[in-house]
Design a protein that fits this description.
Layout (H helix, E strand, L loop, with lengths): L1 H16 L4 H19 L7 H21 L4 E2 L15 E3 L2 E4 L1 E2 L5 E8 L22 E3 L6 E2 L6 H12 L11 E2 L1 E2 L4 E7 L6 E7 L17 H5 L3 E5 L4 H5 L3 H6 L8 H16 L5 E11 L1 H9 L11 E5 L15 H15 L4 H5 L3 H4 L20 H6 L7 E7 L17 H9 L3 H7 L5 H30 L4 E6 L14 H4 L12 H20 L18 E5 L3 E5 L3 H11 L5
Parallel strand pairs: 1-8, 3-6, 7-9, 11-12, 11-13, 13-14, 14-15, 15-16, 16-17
Antiparallel strand pairs: 2-3, 4-5, 5-10, 10-12, 17-18
Helix pairs in contact: 1-2, 1-3, 2-3, 14-15
């Protein structure tokens, strides 16, 4: 009986984590009940091996139920709840469309608007093309499928919610799988309800290492900003091998000689669509801020120095990543490296030509994503590295709002933690001739100390140093810059990577026990800073602690239990990283 209870509990837990349909639960319970009675009746007096076969059969049946009753593939609705109110018709270049009004009537959402032709077939690995017009009125009431990306399955996602986000809910409402498609070049718009004119506009680029991600995630939903008078846009863009594969043959066939930056080209295409159409939603096309988090922020820094993005936005917001260091540590590579991995990708699939590679199904090709997810200097989207452009004073934005969190790397080192035995080896492996200096700055005498020091070092190397570079570049170019340091702890992400977004975007949930009153108070403050910057280029406003533009790059503005200017804590390590990477002052 105990064995049956344990097996039943394990499989029922797996059904929940795997987001199986109600049918799966019903079939699993039937199988468990049938086996219970068979074990007490038919199998009661049978030989041990017959009983053993019975157990094997039960596990086989439950495994089949787990595999074949996964939830259906569905598109996410723009607004949750039954029978949301449809908006008035909006007219854009391609035709007419309607969206949905949020339950409180404060905002409107328009989801799944095409901003380019589907990049499929012969358009795979080509510059995005203008979207086709449509007949009738488009019901923009569901988010489009996410871009093609590797999937570890629903169980992995559920465990990430439990272990990383501490934010898992048992419910039947999520017993489905999100749709995924190569046809994903659609954007979503949130705007204040009612009459809106010349509102500030935020265009957001989601993160995910340029390999994963989707536009509908609740933390950066545009609802919070829309309620505060901002028109918010985000988009799907090509990821991984579909967005960042590079090949000389592709460069040769391109009228612009470009390859390797298709995801960036998608983002620029979306910004161009916003420029031409956002006034129809009450947005001011001359008051656009581009923002991103993680790899999305890395894209923002690339767009800030792309000649193709000039004039498409005024201000830039970057959260927890840049490509501004002399040698960016992620999301960026040289064209030579891009060509090398492109050649390896061809070899992997046995494709002698680009046409053969284009004929490979997306579901198979996506396996090459891990080798092809980096921005590169292609001579068209980027004519040189962002570091080189900033050194020359070349940039598209007029002011910058950016920063990073207290423990950026904690989740990334979760399964590769340092301890006293491996700590020095890790430091020496990365820093080489500079290792002794780093070990002197960050000594470790216990396992706990080694773990904490490695998180600190890893955070500075892969996230924080790039922001320090960006601030100094802005100062050298006489550009106003506001840099934050997010340190708030909570029962969810806290100061880990991505933990700041729910505060900035005005989406701290009222009823969640993962946040307390201090989080909600900080959320109001951070959201006000964010909203003010988007509107005017200055985060300050009535009732807010004064946030001065940076004068000394050794000072930073803390957002946490205290909201005030403080010392930059990694300055000594940044000096070592500068030396390693060849930083040169203007």
């Amino acid at each position: 009986m105990i064995g049956l209870i344990l097996i039943g509990a394990v499989f029922l837990a797996l059904l929940e984590l795997n987001k199986n349909s109600v049918l799966g639960w019903v079939l699993a319970l039937i199988a468990l009940v049938v086996f219970f009675f068979l074990r007490r009746g038919v199998l009661a007096d049978r030989a041990w091996y017959v009983k053993g076969l019975g157990w094997v059969a039960l596990i086989a049946v439950l495994t089949a139920v787990l595999a074949f009753t996964q939830g259906p593939f569905l598109r996410r609705p723009a607004v949750e709840g039954k029978n949301p109110v449809v908006t008035e018709i909006v007219t854009v270049e391609q035709g007419q469309l309607t969206g949905l009004t949020t339950a409180d009537g404060a905002a409107e959402v328009y989801a799944g608007i095409p901003y380019a032709k589907p990049p499929v077939g012969d358009l795979r690995w080509r510059e995005p093309q203008d979207p086709e017009p449509w007949e009738g009125v488009l019901a923009a009431d569901h988010f489009a499928p996410m871009s093609m990306q590797p999937s570890n399955g629903a169980i992995y996602g559920s465990l990430a919610d439990i272990i990383g986000y501490h934010d898992y809910k048992i419910t039947t409402k999520d017993n489905f799988r999100d749709m995924m498609s190569e046809d994903s070049l659609y954007l979503n718009i949130w705007r204040p309800a009612g009459e809106v004119k010349n509102a500030p506009v935020l265009v957001y680029i989601h993160g995910g290492s340029l390999m994963t991600g989707q536009p509908w995630y609740a933390d950066y939903s545009g609802e919070g900003l829309a309620r505060g008078g901002v028109v918010v846009v985000n988009m799907g863009y090509r990821l991984g091998v579909f967005g960042f594969y590079a090949d000389p043959e592709l460069a040769a066939e391109s009228p612009n000689g470009t390859t390797g930056n298709y995801g960036l080209l998608d983002q620029i295409k979306a910004l161009e669509w916003v420029r031409r159409n956002i006034a129809a939603f009450g947005g001011d096309p001359d008051n656009v801020t581009v923002a991103g988090e993680s790899a999305g922020s890395a894209c923002v820094t690339a767009l800030c120095t792309s000649p193709l993005a000039k004039g498409l936005f005024r201000r830039a917001i970057g959260e927890s990543s840049t490509t501004t260091a002399p040698q960016p540590t992620h999301s960026y590579r040289s064209l030579e490296e891009a060509y090398a991995t492109g050649a390896a990708t061809r070899e992997k699939f046995g494709a002698k030509t680009i046409e053969e590679l284009r004929s490979i199904p997306a579901e198979k090709l996506v396996s090459a994503t891990n080798q092809n997810h980096h921005i590169t200097v292609d001579g068209y989207v980027l004519t040189e590295s962002p570091y080189e452009s900033y050194r020359k004073g070349v940039h598209n934005e007029e002011t910058i709002f950016h920063g990073y969190n207290l423990t950026e790397s904690a989740l990334f080192t979760l399964f590769d933690n340092a301890n006293l035995k491996n700590y020095e080896k890790k430091v020496r492996s990365y820093f080489g001739e500079y290792a002794d200096q780093v070990l002197a700055l960050y000594p470790a005498e216990t396992d706990a100390q080694a773990k904490a020091q490695w998180i600190d070092i890893y955070s500075a190397v892969f996230f924080n140093h790039g922001h320090y570079c960006w601030t100094r570049q802005a100062l050298a170019n006489n550009e106003p810059v506001y840099e934050y340091f997010f340190t708030k702890s909570n029962r969810r992400l806290g100061g880990n990577h991505g933990g700041e977004e729910v505060y900035f975007y005005g989406n701290v949930p009222d009823g969640s026990k993962l946040y307390d009153d201090s989080d909600r108070a900080l959320g109001k403050t951070m959201h006000a800073y964010f909203r003010n910057f988007i509107a005017t280029g200055d985060p300050n406003g009535d009732g807010l602690p004064v946030w001065n533009a940076v004068i000394d790059p050794g000072r930073i503005f803390e957002l946490g239990d205290t909201v005030e200017e403080t010392d930059e804590r990694w300055i000594a390590l940044y000096a070592i990283l500068d030396a390693m990477q060849g930083w040169e002052d203007r």
